[in-house]
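Mods, move this if it's the wrong board.
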Amino acid sequence: MHLRYSFALGTLLTLSAAHAQGVVTLTNEDGEVVNGTVIVAPCDWSTDTVSLYSMLTGSSAATVNVRRYEIWPVPGTVNFFCWGVCYLPAAVGTHPTWVSQDHVSMSPGVNYNNFHAYHQAQGNTATMRYKFVWYDVANPNGPDSSWVDIDFCGLVGVPEAGSLNAGLTVWPSPTQGMDVQMEYQLGRGGNAQVVLYNVLGEAMRRSNVGAAQGRIQWSTADLAPGVYFAALERAGQPLATRRFVVTR
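Not the wrong board. Structure tokens:
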């Protein structure tokens, strides 16, 4: 079944093949690169599906796996996904973090069509967000992971109020022991937050921001090395998201 879906306006990241893809390049059915973006899928059917193609970014073969996180759980819904094999549907909360048990051996230059994410709303219309992370099995916590967020039952083609022209820049990445700097632009409206998430989707730090634009700084001294996400949010809804890597 072909699902109509789109990038979330206001949260689509500016990507380049040189720095954003990670271990795999992810593309949608229209051939558009979606690494590091939010994909919005409406509640059109009893089971909604998002399918993505994946291709290794390096020149050597690698074994790649997928982790799925429930970021915005909606009680009463059901979900499952395919990577290597397709799993049986499970109620939300059964697998808050779901790691595929079937790794995929990938060769360079081959476009793989074996990823499919499924959501059964069961009559619920609230937006359910999942984060999918692709990683090299030989280095599961490495900084070269790839990710995409999928919002099922989201609003396609309608920008979040106040999200126009919102933006977030994060540097340095990798941090190499330095503090992380963030410049933000809110666009219309104010009263937002910059939220730090780990790869499990857990919020680890929040900074309130009210000015139309500005800069904040976070110490990385208490952060374990690894991949993190900084999100500019208003009323719990993301306006922009950036990935960065903490190193010593």
